[in-house]
Specification:
Chain lengths: 118, 113
Amino acid sequence: DARVTQTPRHKVTEMGQEVTMRCQPILGHNTVFWYRQTMMQGLELLAYFRNRAPLDDSGMPKDRFSAEMPDATLATLKIQPSEPRDSAVYFCASGLVPWGSSGANVLTFGAGSRLTVL
Amino acid sequence: AQTVTQSQPEMSVQEAETVTLSCTYDTSESDYYLFWYKQPPSRQMILVIRQEAYKQQNATENRFSVNFQKAAKSFSLKISDSQLGDAAMYFCAYWYNNNDMRFGAGTRLTVKP
């Protein structure tokens, strides 16, 4: 089965350090989402891309977060400087839009990156 | 803006029984998609079932089925013959074409042996 690959799976860092999370979407998918999951806020959309172009990053704190797709096989989410409140699980998901009638094209999630900022 | 509401933070069901998880959403669109995702303790988000709004027939996947009421903007998930492996967080989600996928707050399902 095709998978969305996220690295690292776990990251512990100290406040003020730079953190980069990476995502390899499924080959052929043209849409990539970044979500953040916390107990308090649930699943929050941070940013999403279509054909590598950012469509919406309004959910992302612009002063410290940045998201890019340097090529079709890699999406990155960077936090600089990191803060304790950034501790969360970060999910990447990819899909192919528009969907065909076959129903085969839905969002597929990666396993998530658990970030702890001390 | 589209919002998704799951009013049941927690639910429990006896093994082999049936449970229904509720979801309502708000939209002004007529053609969209609705989903239920399952998140077990492993954190992996797993698609359980999807429903296209233009289809009147309720989607079914083995023991999982939905009750889609478009006029009421309701999309509930029924799990029949519940199994221990069904214990997880369940998220309802809405997606309209080029926009982002919106998730509800989730319902934690416990299955009692």
